[in-house]
């Protein structure tokens, strides 16, 4: 692909700069010609927090610093442990399997059972989907997390 244009020397045309610097390989050209999707959003991927006990990230202001220190916010990890105590089915799961059977409610900061999906045998009112749980990586120097 070649793009030629006439422009004044002082003009900063970002679109032309992008087109002149862009390289479209044969793979991308064929993919676009066949009208395949460039980006897919399936299956759903839920990022799961990893931290030590009471080591979650806390955002606070001067007005609410004492309250946040006394009661830190719930994360996916702390909610997972709470669900394992309260729900017998959750106690059978490992952490990365949680999004397959539960949804993360960002406003209440709790996991909730899925209401749709494939029914799980021997567990009434439990449904599964293709959602994936992915834990953030932990640096090897942070050996307390292992």
Give the helix/strand layout.
Layout: H1 14-21, H2 26-33, E1 45-48, H3 65-70, H4 76-86, H5 98-101, E2 102-105, E3 110-113, E4 118-119, E5 127-128, E6 132-135
Keyword list:
146 residues; alpha+beta; two-stranded antiparallel ribbon
Outline the structure in words.
It is a single chain. With 146 residues, the chain is α+β, with helices and mostly antiparallel strands. The chain has a domain at 45-145. The protein is 25% helix and 14% strand. The chain has helices at 14-21, 26-33, 65-70, 76-86, 98-101, and strands spanning 45-48, 102-105, 110-113, 118-119, 127-128, 132-135. The strands form 3 sheets. Strands 1-6 form a two-stranded parallel sheet. The longest helix is centred in the middle third of the chain and has 11 residues, at 76-86. It starts with 13 loop residues before the first helix and ends in an 11-residue tail after the last strand. The model has no long low-confidence stretch (mean pLDDT 87).
- Major sheet characteristics: 2 strands, parallel
Give the uncertain stretches in residue-range form. none
Mean pLDDT: 87
Radius of gyration: 24 Å
Shape field:
extended
Number of helices in the DSSP assignment: 5
